[in-house]
């Protein structure tokens, strides 16, 4: 019979064991091996059965065992040491506390998903894992971050396979009382709530759950509360589920409700109020509107409040394709804002203008969350060097008149949280060389360019480590494959073959990620005969472990999964290639260390970063990847192999897949497999081991989330905090008025005359020209603008390809026609075709970039002819 109501019955811990509850509730255990070992020793069998989740473990362990442990002096000493260590970790000074005093007092970090641990399944893929790693690294560094997200009652789906290999989705209900979270409560003990006004006079209420991620609080909003009607209760049902209105409500709750949750948390705990708000992808973009609405009560009009909010906002984009951005119908957005709904003090037209695609090629009736994020954030970044370039091109319509290279979107390349993803065996090998504390510091704080101690590890030790990790993976794969086949309906008697799946001495390739079409899960199947030859080679066989989830609404992705599964089901090769369903953090932590090669073959440049290969590399796995995302930035032949790409308009998709698959097979046959099996004089694959050593010592330090978070602090958070402090109410009003004046005057700004006076008779390298420019500034003054010269090499169409900009100085004016004279030297500092131009940009001390307004004035066509190219 089915229960009509469900309760979570918790054991009462003996007083001596009370610290176990604190250790279980702080998610630092998910990356702290000693704490996990302590929980395992409570009851090893129940630890495994609980999915290595301390909260579930403590909910199932017997009272007799607890009584026994409360009298075990050896266990109590270990418990006391773990509790003291956690206390020191969360209260002691770390990297951030040793930095200059102008750092932000606090940063609020918003993301639609967070991958902290498998015990808190609130993530779908790379965006969530990155957000989780960001929080963990911030905690390790002592950065005063507050995380903000949603608590999804069904999380993301669990994946299984039908008998014929079709993806099946399951949505188990998550009881927050069984998760490592606790309710945020008011001083009187009642649960804290935030509410959003909805059209028609109703409201959306949400409670705030707190997950403690080391030093970092993570606030998760949950709409499944009794005060809501059935529809509103379901707003936080599933990650990326539902239709447009459902998604809009989720994003309003995340952004608007999230700011209110942060305010509540700071009020109740005394935590410093955030000076910087970081929007991790566009889903949380409405947070800026809520902060503008707050300022409307402080006698700031919309434009001034917008400037105050922008100053302290950082926006990170993660998608390299417009299709990956949430866009809503204009009328849907309009209905949810204004006098009868949410943010009544803001004119709906102001809100709509922030998100509308009012640029060439845009859809004028669609509200674009990334566009709003860029307009609400004074600082923006992509997540790898290449992705920054792609983002500048993709969003260049917001800055008309500027070359993509000048679009104010920078990049901070992602990193991964090494203590989460580095296998304990790898950590112990490092600790043997330099000690546990130095190894921990190297993996968390980072800061060094190389890990030199890796050079001293004997080849034999590296090779034994790699084989041990491969052996563990083989055992894990067999266990998961058996469970999968049982789910698919197979009987025990027909699964004896699984005992022979994979071989711990065979070159092992991993491929695991989400399954959108651009990641090309099935590229390896392009020539099946050739793949079979690789898998079954008599001397140099290869084995492949594949995992990945297709979005529930993506039948194309599901067909790719089915195609791969059917190939892996073939009795001829099923001992050499496997597909593991339900890819998640628990599987990944075994998969990355156990592979020798990490394969990634997306369509370039559609991989924004792709951090799975980073996690593999930190365990000594070599990358075999298309030059996309982070690999485009840091590839070296010492670290792995680059798959040649055929990107470009001249090749259709089918031909491109054929060319790149052939290149992949060639690399595996001619370079990768021979190097793995080639033995040196000592009977070891010396050249392979050297590549592992180079990967760990030279690539490893770059890949750390600690490096990434330090870059955010130094390059984005601190400038944003300083801008926030500068943008007090008078400054915000001043800037808003100035921008309005400049925009109104800009149509009358002109470059009227340009001339050069040669200091030398010929245009030779090292010579200098004197540049004189007459400009019309209309109602503006020289203090409102910067007149620049831009010079550099020119291409065959006279476009400047690597321009250098420098300001010209006012030398007189206004003349009788109201024109101003600007002058400056133009140095001919490079050979070859060379040219220059001049332009006028708005200039103000409170701008983060001269391109901020998207306004630029350049010479008219008749001035350009012949005047701006000096050498061809």
UniProtKB/TrEMBL annotation:
CDD domains: GT35_Glycogen_Phosphorylase-like. It comes from the Bacteria. GO terms for biological process: carbohydrate metabolic process. This is glycogen phosphorylase. It catalyses: [(1->4)-alpha-D-glucosyl](n) + phosphate = [(1->4)-alpha-D-glucosyl](n-1) + alpha-D-glucose 1-phosphate. Belongs to the glycogen phosphorylase family. It is an enzyme of class 2 (transferase).
